[in-house]
């Protein structure tokens, strides 16, 4: 019996559809402070001292998370073995260690340091760093309240449909990733430069705040404009774009203002398309930057006069309809609209991000940020049944 026969497709479609119907729900309320079955735990804090040589910066994080990192890398390898009769893994072990030296400073040295402390082969740590660039789907939003406070929040959904564990009805990769989530305070001269929520072992950034100045998240923009050709080109020697997570890190570490960040995120050539969601510290400063590898297609900004007091991005261009089987945008916007600008706060945004299918089986963590206070809070999430698989 072929899996692609018409009756099978019908059954599979009905199954997926039923999962969605069961998983949808009214906007949640009263979820904050986080509690109950959708809250799996707090995220612990680490300090990374940027005054140290790059190879020594992550030592404490890696020492604490070594077992979990090892398990995760093993799982990724097992998945990668399925591709090209295991040739992909040979490539990882033989070629990626050489490629580390072509990565820009300080990322090359940081990755080498992580490999040395963890005892995990350099090529595999490098693969792990590439993996995040490719397998995240997310919901991010920036909103302004009536007093001009800017909030920025996100759900990070990781794993992109890999390794469904039938017994536990969860995604294996997503579950293995949860113990690796850490909050990091990046310091220079003993002072915070920026804060982020990170995966131990990954040196790029997906979520972060420069207190008093800006907030930034990145969402995947997959299957557009040649997708990951740029990453393959880079592996095979054509290296004229920047890794997306490295650019976000560079902006969080060194940008001097919202405008500077916006310029860097719009103008730097990338290895793959992406969405950058940026918040500033003044009224009207919040935008979604839609990127191709080369260009910026669109910058969608807050505009209070037009009644646009929030911008919200999942993984589809905001001017197009989302894919019908992955519409997290409509439910999230419905709940934002119901909340209203007068009631927006970290707590009410947490409610929005706790509503299925914005919260789903792939959701790893929820982060809440407020630029003026420099707040960054992250919570590990669970989505017990009934819940949509993504
Ligand atoms: C998470 O942190 C909060 C505040 O520090 C604390 O009240 C709560 O008990 C913690 N929850 C868990 C599950 O650790
Ligand atoms: C399901 O979860 C339990 C407890 O977390 C774990 O021991 C078990 O290995 C999981 N099942 C599979 C098939 O991974
Ligand atoms: C940072 O603080 C520690 C202890 O509080 C101190 O020993 C060190 O000299 C300080 N470093 C800098 C660069 O100020
Ligand atoms: C930020 O700027 C400092 C000083 O120029 C530089 O050493 C550092 O590598 C930069 N950080 C990143 C991530 O590019
Ligand atoms: C906003 O950021 C700019 C650029 O970093 C800074 O000069 C300004 O003081 C900040 N404004 C507030 C209100 O913090
Ligand atoms: C939410 O409100 C905006 C602005 O009024 C509107 O364009 C959008 O269609 C609304 N979305 C939903 C899902 O209610």
Automatic annotation (TrEMBL):
A single Gene Ontology CC term: membrane
Listed InterPro entries: Acid_ceramidase-like (IPR016699), Acid_ceramidase_N (IPR029130), CBAH/NAAA_C (IPR029132)
Reaction(s) catalysed (UniProt annotation): an N-acylsphing-4-enine + H2O = sphing-4-enine + a fatty acid
Alphabetized UniProt keyword annotations: Disulfide bond, Glycoprotein, Hydrolase, Lipid metabolism, Lysosome, Secreted, Signal, Sphingolipid metabolism
Domain named Acid ceramidase N-terminal: residues: 42-102
Active site: 138 (nucleophile)
Keyword rRNA processing found: no
Cell compartments where the protein resides: Lysosome; Secreted
One GO process term, biological-process aspect: sphingolipid metabolic process
Signal peptide extent: 1-23
Pfam family, one: NAAA-beta
Listed Gene3D superfamilies: Penicillin V Acylase, Chain A
EC number: 3.5.1.23
Domain of life: Eukaryota
Pathways per UniProt: Sphingolipid metabolism; Lipid metabolism; sphingolipid metabolism
GO molecular function: fatty acid amide hydrolase activity; N-acylsphingosine amidohydrolase activity
Domain named Choloylglycine hydrolase/NAAA C-terminal: residues: 138-375
Family, as annotated: Belongs to the acid ceramidase family.
The name this protein goes by in its record: Acid ceramidase
Source organism per UniProt: Phoxinus phoxinus
Upper lineage: Eukaryota, Metazoa, Chordata, Craniata, Vertebrata
């Amino acid at each position: 019996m072929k899996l692609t026969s018409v009756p099978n497709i019908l059954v599979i479609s009905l199954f997926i559809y039923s999962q969605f119907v069961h998983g949808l729900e009214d906007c949640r309320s009263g979820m904050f402070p986080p509690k109950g079955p959708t809250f799996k735990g707090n995220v612990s804090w680490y300090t990374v001292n940027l005054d140290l040589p790059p190879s020594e910066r992550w030592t404490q994080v890696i020492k604490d998370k070594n077992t979990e990192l090892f398990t995760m890398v093993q799982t990724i390898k097992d998945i990668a073995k399925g591709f090209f009769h295991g040739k992909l893994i040979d490539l990882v072990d033989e070629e990626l260690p050489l490629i580390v030296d072509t990565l820009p400073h300080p990322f090359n040295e940081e990755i080498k340091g992580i490999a040395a402390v963890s005892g995990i082969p350099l090529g595999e740590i490098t693969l792990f760093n590439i993996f995040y660039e490719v397998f995240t789907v997310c919901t991010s939003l920036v909103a302004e309240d009536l007093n001009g406070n800017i909030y920025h929040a996100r759900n990070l959904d990781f794993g992109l449909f890999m390794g469904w564990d039938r017994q536990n009805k969860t995604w294996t990769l997503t579950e293995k990733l949860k113990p690796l989530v850490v909050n990091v305070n990046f310091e220079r001269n003993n002072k915070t430069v920026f804060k982020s929520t990170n995966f131990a072992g990954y040196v790029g950034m997906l979520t972060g705040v420069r207190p008093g100045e800006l907030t930034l998240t990145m969402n995947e923009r997959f299957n557009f404009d040649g997708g990951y050709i740029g990453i393959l080109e880079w592996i095979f020697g054509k290296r004229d774009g920047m890794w997306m997570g490295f650019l976000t890190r560079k902006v969080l570490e060194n940008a001097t203002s919202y405008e500077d960040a916006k310029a860097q995120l719009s103008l730097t050539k990338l290895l793959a398309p992406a969405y950058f969601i940026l918040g500033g510290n003044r009224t009207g400063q919040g935008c979604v930057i839609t990127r191709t590898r080369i260009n910026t297609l669109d910058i969608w900004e807050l505009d209070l006069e037009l009644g646009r007091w929030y911008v919200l991005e999942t993984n589809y261009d905001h001017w197009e309809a989302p894919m019908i089987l992955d519409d997290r945008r409509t439910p999230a916007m419905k709940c934002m609209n119901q909340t209203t600008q007068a009631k927006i706060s970290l707590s009410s945004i947490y409610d929005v991000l706790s509503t299925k299918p914005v919260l789903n089986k792939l959701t790893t963590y929820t982060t809440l940020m407020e630029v003026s206070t420099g707040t960054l809070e992250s919570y590990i999430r669970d989505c017990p049944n009934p819940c949509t698989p993504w």
